[in-house]
Design brief:
Blueprint lengths: L1 H13 L6 H9 L16 H8 L12 H11 L12 H15 L10 E4 L3 H7 L1 H8 L10 E5 L13 H6 L9 E5 L2 H12 L3
Parallel strand pairs: 1-2, 2-3
Helix pairs in contact: 1-2, 1-4, 5-7
Length: 201
């Protein structure tokens, strides 16, 4: 996919567009000739499912990924004029905050819960949206409607990935009344079982 991504980045740069890393993947996944290179069945791809359902996919710490490394190398080699065609982490965070404000209990829609797989930046990035709105933007919004974390990390002094949900209350990420569920197990095993049950399979 490297060549296809590079072409997509070049097009965005030429048009002075800026997109999230996932949006570039969504774009190239539409190319019919790419399907012959798929390594799994399309119906088993969560990236394709997110694209079809219109679900935004945020990539905090994208530079710590294969495609992030490829992108940086192409900027340094002069194949891309600069970094501006890919939204930075803070720009993605702004997009998430806007999404939350538009979707949390809007109209007849249900409130938004937070289902976290693993820990670290991927989880902390997203859950920080609410305290940022309340504390930094000084806007009144509800906290996440529920919180569920699946991780095999153990709680430890100074460790975040295994931090229990109660710690998130003291940081303003959850309210004391937020329903909280902690599942200490391998997310690659547990998450598909939960999703299957929720979907009625």
């Amino acid at each position: 996919i490297e060549g296809r991504l590079l072409d997509s980045w070049k097009r965005a740069s030429a048009l002075e567009e800026s997109k999230m890393p996932s949006e570039f993947l969504f774009e190239i996944l539409c190319e019919p000739e790419l399907e012959s290179h798929f390594q799994i069945a399309p119906e088993n791809s969560w990236v394709l499912a997110a694209k079809k359902a219109g679900i935004p996919v945020y990539a905090p710490g994208w530079e710590d990924s294969t495609t992030g490394n490829i992108f940086t190398a192409n900027v340094m080699m002069g194949n891309l004029p600069d970094h501006s065609c890919v939204k930075s982490g803070t720009e993605q965070f702004e997009s998430l905050i806007e999404w939350y404000q538009e979707n949390h209990g809007a109209g007849d829609a249900p409130s938004v819960g937070f289902f976290q797989l693993g820990g670290g930046i991927a989880g902390d990035f997203a859950i920080c949206a609410v305290p940022c709105i309340i504390q930094d933007l000084r806007r009144d919004v509800p906290h996440w409607d529920y919180f569920c974390q699946v991780t095999d990390a153990q709680p430890s002094y100074g460790g975040y990935s295994g931090a229990p949900a109660n710690e998130k209350i003291s940081w303003g990420k959850l309210s004391p009344s937020t329903p909280r569920f902690e599942i200490n197990s391998d997310a690659t095993i547990v998450a598909p079982l939960i999703f299957s049950w929720v979907m009625g399979d």
